[in-house]
């Protein structure tokens, strides 16, 4: 069953169509059209921001604890629809159903966390340096937030933006990925049913070019106060440049080339399990997916042998079953992965499956679950012998491929791990606490794991990266409140006269020449 989806703009649900249609297909069964998406032109996002500006003023007047109750209701509605929404996610982007359930649970966890923040948007009472005067600070909503998200986590990652932004009294223009349009629309419906007015949450479907042009226009109009972007580092850099022209600091959650260091004292079976999940789960299509394995030379051969065995034994295929991973998200990602496979060089050793490339009847994979010809299924690839100056080592791959290189000491491993210049997630496997702390102090990533995978952040920890992976902004937990609020200070003087700071301040003069007398121990 397919649906036709349009943008939803303003309280009346108006739309601005460009005449272009995008077919959101099930990547595990390409003949299954999930939704026909009517794309808007640049004027769609610009109009949505204008409507959101007017709606935000009224939404901000709703007391924060009441907005918290809306978030609570959203969590319960999502919980009641958990299985249905998860099945839709699996159908639309090919994510294994078990992972889709985890993604939807993350929305519930996020709501459970933020519902209480409606009663904890704390400011402070600050003592003044002058009498009869009080100082205060308040958190104020930024205004209109434009949120642009990728489709590999079509509902969980948007919740990181939308829930706190709306809780803090902002209105939102959300531009989800076209290839996850149906999942986005289903999630938006739950917001509206929970009590968020349609003009406060607007959904715009548009291609990348129209989105950028529309965002530029909305910024020029003064109708966007915050931009949240999840996507590639290349596009994130352009978004950062654009917002910088309007003296804004965006929230950028970008790509990663996430390293995992495996020390010579590591539990190898545990390290293999962590590498398998973070490297090839979701077909390597997470921003936190494992990119480079940095393995101590003394255990390299045994570790690679075990990982190769585990990868060859992993089930690939039907995402509704028990597969480690299903298809690539969309044809454009399949095309990109074909280019990445061209980065494999003669000095590399290719492991993990019978061959590389698309899984078909003529290029099968042992133990494949389902019909390989039906979808965008690819062989998992483990590449040994990768050098730190290889393109495969330096660039994000966003697909089911992981490279392996070696190190001799931990300082060298940390230097190698950081070389690509990303800084999202990193992991180390070791049984020595000293290694763990040296790793924490030396590595440049924003999120670290010890004896765990590079993927799998909890909903109440700060999420975000540095370098090519982001601009230092953080999502989730209390830290995201700084993205969607602005500090406002108030000084209230009730002395009945003008008291000037730093000038009309009483002083207490000390006797700086005092020295202890002999009877008290002085000389």
From TrEMBL:
Pfam families: Aldedh (PF00171). One of its GO terms (molecular function) is aldehyde dehydrogenase (NAD+) activity. SUPFAM superfamilies: ALDH-like (SSF53720). Keywords: NAD, Oxidoreductase. It comes from the Bacteria. PROSITE patterns: ALDEHYDE_DEHYDR_GLU. Its EC number is 1.2.1.3. The active site is at residue 253. Homotetramer. Belongs to the aldehyde dehydrogenase family. This is aldehyde dehydrogenase (NAD(+)). It comes from Allosaccharopolyspora coralli.
């Amino acid at each position: 069953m397919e649906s036709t989806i349009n943008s939803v703009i303003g309280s009346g649900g108006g739309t601005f169509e460009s005449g272009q249609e995008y077919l959101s297909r099930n990547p595990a069964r390409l003949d299954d059209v999930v939704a026909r998406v009517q794309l808007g032109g640049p004027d769609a996002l610009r109009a949505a921001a204008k409507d959101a500006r007017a709606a935000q003023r009224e939404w901000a007047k709703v007391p924060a604890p009441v907005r918290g109750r809306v978030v609570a209701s959203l969590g319960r509605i999502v919980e009641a629809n958990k299985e249905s929404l998860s099945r839709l996610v699996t159908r639309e982007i090919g994510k294994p159903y078990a992972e889709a359930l985890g993604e939807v649970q993350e929305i519930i966890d996020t709501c459970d966390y933020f519902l209480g923040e409606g009663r904890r948007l704390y400011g402070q009472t600050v003592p003044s340096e002058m009498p009869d005067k009080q100082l205060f600070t308040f958190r104020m909503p930024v205004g209109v937030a434009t949120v642009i998200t990728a489709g590999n986590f079509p509902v969980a990652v948007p919740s990181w933006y939308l829930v706190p932004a709306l809780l803090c009294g902002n209105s939102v223009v959300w531009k989800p990925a076209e290839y996850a349009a149906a999942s986005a629309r289903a999630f938006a419906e739950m917001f509206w049913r929970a009590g968020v007015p349609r003009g406060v949450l607007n959904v715009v479907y548009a291609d990348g070019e129209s989105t950028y042009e529309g965002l530029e226009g909305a910024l020029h109009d003064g109708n966007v106060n915050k931009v949240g972007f999840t996507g590639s580092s290349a596009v994130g850099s352009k978004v950062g440049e654009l917002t910088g022209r309007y003296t804004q600091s965006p929230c950028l959650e970008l790509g990663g080339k996430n390293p995992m260091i495996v020390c010579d004292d590591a539990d190898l079976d545990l390290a293999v399990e962590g590498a398998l999940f973070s490297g090839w789960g979701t077909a390597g299509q997470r921003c936190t997916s494992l990119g480079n394995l940095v393995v101590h030379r003394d255990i390299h051969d045994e570790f690679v042998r075990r990982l190769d065995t585990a990868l060859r034994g992993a089930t690939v295929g039907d995402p509704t079953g028990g597969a480690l991973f299903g298809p690539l998200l969309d044809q454009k990602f399949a095309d990109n992965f074909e280019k990445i496979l061209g980065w494999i060089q003669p000095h590399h050793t290719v492991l993990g499956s019978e061959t590389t490339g698309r899984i078909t009847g003529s290029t099968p994979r042992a133990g494949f679950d389902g019909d390989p010809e039906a979808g965008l299924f690819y062989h998992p690839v483990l590449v040994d012998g990768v050098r730190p100056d290889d393109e495969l080592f330096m660039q994000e791959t966003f697909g089911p491929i992981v490279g392996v290189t070696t190190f001799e000491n931990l300082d060298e491993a940390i230097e190698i791990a950081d070389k690509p210049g990303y800084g999202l997630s990193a992991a180390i496997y070791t049984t020595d606490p000293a290694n763990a702390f040296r790793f924490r102090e030396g590595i440049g990533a924003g999120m670290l794991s010890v004896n765990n995978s590079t993927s799998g952040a909890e909903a109440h920890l700060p999420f975000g990266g540095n370098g090519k992976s982001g601009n230092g902004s953080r999502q989730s937990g209390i830290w995201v409140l700084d993205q969607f609020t602005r500090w406002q200070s108030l000084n209230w003087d009730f002395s009945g006269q003008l008291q000037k700071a730093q000038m009309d301040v009483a002083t207490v003069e000390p006797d700086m020449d005092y020295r202890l007398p002999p009877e008290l121990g002085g000389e």
